[in-house]
Amino acid sequence: MIVVMKKDYTSDDINQVVNYIENKRLKVNVSKGKETCVIGILGDITEVNVEEVQALKGVSKVLKVQEPYKKVNRLFHPEDTIININGNKIGGKNLGIIAGPCAVESEEQIVEIAKQVKKSGANFLRGGAFKPRTSPYSFQGLELEGLKLMEIAKQETGLPIVSELMSIGHLDEFMKSVDVIQIGARNMQNYDLLKQVGRTNKPVILKRGLSSTIEEWLLSAEHIMAGGNENVILCERGIRTFETYTRNTLDLNAVPVVKKYSHLPIIVDPSHGTGSSEYVESMAKASIVAGCDGIMIEVHNNPEKALSDGQQSITPQQFDKLMKKIKILSSLED
Ligand code: PEP
Ligand code: MN
User: Hey, how many other C-beta atoms are within 10 angstroms of the C-beta on 119?
Assistant: First the structure.
């Protein structure tokens, strides 16, 4: 349920509504926008008498929220959420350009790629240290050593770093090391992991599960937000369909749909979305035009020799060309 305040509401009016709700032992979520203020009510609302709330001073209307996700819901927070990571904003009109290899392989590799993608305009460096591989015999990542190498690349370039957390046991190290925690597609429904990152204030990129609906994905984001962490960025990375000519089917519908139902930023990963370097540019450009808040692209200085996802990684030179086009497309007004 949400309470929309009148345009000329006062802080006393808000306090009165908040007190009324808290007296029913429910939680409130106050979102003050430019135009008005929206007070969200979380929990079992059967105790709330709509007429009583409606009669409180400063209240314009009381609405029931149909969707099962609340804090994630745009009704609870009508304005776009903008997440600020060391001065780099994602959301609203701010694009996050996250580039780097699928996996960190060596200091030379990550530092060289970091320098190149930064020169082309990336504002975040990605690199997996813990890799969720389908086969147990594939390269599993450099683990904690990989995180250290990411930190070196950050020192060298100033780029904030993004890396995937697979297990609660490494949360402390990630809190110290990375600027953004990535929760991978395979862990989108690892609710324990979501709850743990929800208790921190670290920005989180939540990838869409391989076969998850948008509603399930938004509910996973709700798990993080319910714990108090409001810094959630959604990442569309393609879903499983019957199609076999691409690794996944990049669901660009998700961009306008998520924008309608949620205030959270949504970025797109055309690398996993297509699985093929030759399709990355088309789908990256399409994502920008669809209105996303950023892109995540796998870039490798020697894709043929990459230890993970080489077939979908573009070279720094291809990334540079792509960035020139992205800059033009993102400057176009809606
Ligand atoms: C990745 O970003 O390298 C990755 C493993 O992504 P996903 O979880 O989307 O498969
Ligand atoms: Mn990958």
Answer: 13
